Every structure is written in C-alpha cells, then in structure tokens.
C-alpha cells in the first residue's frame, strides 16, 4: 500500500493509503475502504475534506472524502502530484503520464469540484521531460521536471502567471 498522508477530519486522525484495490483509511488499528473505484497517487487536505488524485490512466476519476462519504469528481485531473496554493488545487501529470506530461492543471479558486478544461499551464512543452512534482515555496510554486526546475509566480490568476526556468540540470 502506498501511504498518501495523514488527515484530521472531525477531530479524528486518519492515515490514508492506496493500492490497486482502491483507497483506504487507517484508524483504530483497522484499514477501512474509502473507495474501490481507483488507485490514488496523492492527496491534499482542504476545507475539511481530503482530495484524492487518481493515477494517470485510471478509468475512474478521483474525488473528495469528508471522513464519511466519498464523492467522485468527474473533471478532477489524474496525476501523480498535487498541492494547494492560493486556494486552488494544482495537479501535475507525473512520470507515468502518456499525454500532456508537461501540464500543470489548476482548479477554480476555493472550489476543487470545478475544472474548466482550459485552466492549465504547459511547462516547457516539447522538451522531452515530464512534469513530476511541485511544492509551494515563498508564495510561488516550484515545478520539477525530470531534469529542470521552474518557478511559477502570480498574484490573482494563474493564467496571468510568470513562468521562469531556474535550473537546466536539476529536476
């Protein structure tokens, strides 16, 4: 089982994990199923829910879980890394993506159930490297490709962001 993280929902602490059989939470010395519809690769916690990202190539979408109910979100992108920044969920396709492997996709502000399909930034497309990870650093996003690193900076809208390569060799 891939351990995705720890969440505190309603005062209860959960360990969240996933494998080919689905997504599970551990509490009170027992693994319990959240959903069997997909394998998750990562999660974030935001607004009293965990947001689960489905593995690229999954037939089913990821979604949210509030400690009781799992809700599938058809439009949530599949990927291998995610973070919350300025009230938006950002998802990268990851190393196993077979399409749009340089794409950084983001949700509407404060609403991770709305994904327009046009809210994305292609990071160094066509360079032969996949976008594999991201992290928030000093009010910016650091974006890691296989052999390069970028910084994404914006004030209000990611679509108006400045994208700058900061390393040609480290990813």
Secondary structure elements and pairings:
Layout: E1 2-9, E2 12-19, E3 22-27, E4 30-35, E5 40-46, E6 49-54, E7 63-65, E8 70-72, E9 81-85, E10 88-92, E11 103-106, E12 120-122, E13 131-137, E14 140-145, E15 149-153, E16 162-167
3D structure, described in words:
There is one protein chain. Strand 15 and strand 16 form a beta hairpin. With 171 residues, the chain is mainly beta. It is 0% helix and 51% strand. The strands form 4 sheets. The chain has a 4-stranded antiparallel sheet, with no helix packed on it. It has a 4-stranded antiparallel sheet with strand order 5-6-7-8, with no helix packed on it. It has strands at 2-9, 12-19, 22-27, 30-35, 40-46, 49-54, 63-65, 70-72, 81-85, 88-92, 103-106, 120-122, 131-137, 140-145, 149-153, 162-167. It contains no helices and 16 strands.
Biggest sheet, in brief? 4 strands, antiparallel
Q: Topology as H/E string?
A: EEEEEEEEEEEEEEEE
Q: Name the strands of the widest sheet in spatial order.
A: 1-2-3-4
- Structural class by secondary-structure content: mainly beta
Query: Can you give the helix content as a percent range?
Result: under 10%
- Count of runs of 4 or more consecutive helical residues: 0
How much is the radius of gyration in Å? 16 Å
Termini distance?
26 Å
Mean pLDDT: 95
Counting DSSP E segments of at least 2 residues, the number of strands comes to 16
- How much of the sequence lies in strands comes to over 45%
C-alpha geometry: globular
Unreliable stretches, pLDDT < 50, 5 or more residues?
Answer: none
């Amino acid at each position: 089982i891939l351990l995705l993280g720890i969440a505190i929902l309603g005062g209860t602490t959960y360990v969240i994990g996933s494998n080919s059989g689905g997504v599970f939470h551990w509490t009170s010395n027992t693994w319990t199923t959240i959903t069997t519809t997909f394998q998750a690769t990562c999660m974030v916690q935001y607004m009293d829910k965990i947001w689960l990202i489905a593995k690229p190539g999954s037939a089913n979408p990821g979604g949210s879980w509030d400690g009781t109910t799992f809700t599938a979100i058809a439009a949530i992108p599949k990927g291998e890394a995610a973070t919350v920044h300025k009230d938006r969920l950002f998802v990268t396709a990851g190393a196993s993506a077979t399409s749009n492997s340089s794409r950084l996709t983001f949700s509407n502000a404060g609403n991770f159930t709305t994904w327009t399909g046009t809210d994305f930034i292609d990071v160094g497309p066509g360079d032969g490297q996949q976008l594999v990870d991201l992290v928030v650093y000093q009010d910016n996003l650091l974006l890691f490709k296989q052999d390069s690193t970028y910084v994404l900076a914006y004030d209000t809208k990611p679509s108006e962001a400045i994208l700058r390569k900061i390393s040609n060799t480290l990813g």
